[in-house]
Amino acid sequence: MSGLAPGLRRVARLETAFRPDSWDFATREAARIDADWARARAEKPALFDGKILLMRDPEIFSSPEGDVLRGAFFETDFRNFHAWRAFGTPSDGAFNCFSMAALRTRDGAFLLGEMGPHTMNAGNIYFAAGTPDRSDIFGEKVDLAASVAREMAEETGFSPEEAPAAPGWRVVVAGVKIACIQQRLLPLTAQQAVAQAADFLAREKEPELVRLHAVFGPQDIDPERMPDFIQVYLRDAFAAQPCG
Question: Which of 105, 125, 129, 181 is a good FRET partner for 228, with 20 to 30 A between their CA atoms?
Answer without folding.
Answer: 105
